């Protein structure tokens, strides 16, 4: 079995829900609306985003702004294959 390349290997270790949520967060600007569209709780999305930020050591969302906005790091992750 071959190992995946570095970027794909990195992506496989990220919380799947957070990675799926980032494009929706960018589009709708709300954790609650994102959670609704994904069919999960707001808490699940928030916890997954927090885990992503903890693993990476960077913030991926600008909290407190309405609508919620992705940081530059969040935009990079959103665009990963």
Structural key phrases:
81 residues; mainly alpha; Arc Repressor Mutant, subunit A; 62% helix
Question: In words, what does this structure look like?
Answer:
The protein has one domain (6-78): Orthogonal Bundle (Arc Repressor Mutant, subunit A). The mean pLDDT is 87. The two termini are 21 Å apart. It is mainly α. β1 and β2 (69-70) form a beta hairpin. The protein has 5 helices and 2 strands; from the N terminus they run ααααββα.
Largest sheet: 2 strands, antiparallel
The CATH homologous superfamily? Winged helix-like DNA-binding domain superfamily/Winged helix DNA-binding domain
CATH topology: Arc Repressor Mutant, subunit A
Mean pLDDT: 87
Instruction: State the helical fraction.
Output: 55-70%
Strand content: under 5%
Poorly predicted parts = none
List SSEs in N-to-C order: HHHHEEH
Rg over alpha carbons? 13 Å
The coarse overall form would be globular
Please give the order of strands in the largest beta sheet.
Answer: 1-2
The CATH architecture assignment turns out to be Orthogonal Bundle
The level-1 CATH class: Mainly Alpha
How many beta-strand elements? Answer: 2
Domain unit count: 1
Distance between the termini: 21 Å
């Amino acid at each position: 079995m071959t190992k995946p390349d570095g970027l794909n290997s990195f992506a496989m270790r990220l919380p799947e829900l957070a990675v799926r949520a980032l494009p929706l967060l960018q589009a709708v600007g709300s954790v609650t609306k994102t959670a609704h569209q994904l069919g999960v709780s707001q808490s699940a999305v928030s916890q997954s985003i927090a885990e992503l930020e903890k693993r990476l050591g960077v913030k991926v969302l600008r909290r407190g702004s309405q609508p919620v906005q992705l940081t530059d790091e969040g935009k990079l992750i959103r665009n990963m294959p």
